[in-house]
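ugh ok fine here u go
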Amino acid sequence: MAQGRGSGAMMVLGLLLLCVLLHGQVAESAVFTVGDRGGWTFNSNSWTNGKRFKGGDVLVFKYDSSSHNVVAVNAAGYKGCTAPRGAKTFKSGNDRVTLARGTNYFICSIPGHCQSGMKIAVNAA
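structure:
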């Protein structure tokens, strides 16, 4: 009799697992290279046009680290091309940044670069 109870419990557990798998939403992150083949450079601000981003997607910034950087900024920093105190700065030349839901702002903080279009605003659903 004990054997029968164990089999029934295993079957219920199996069915429950199957239901979870069938109804669960699989979250897959996409990886985008900023600027595509051209990389993170001047006039990158239009690169986001026509692309759809989600929270959890990853941006890869490829650039010459001796000439540029990537700084995660807020809306004011983006608009004014300034990096607020404590802003996260990336300098490797091959940086991976995971997007948060909402608008994510990035600039190059080398003087004159942001003003020349080296900035992007990425809206992640």
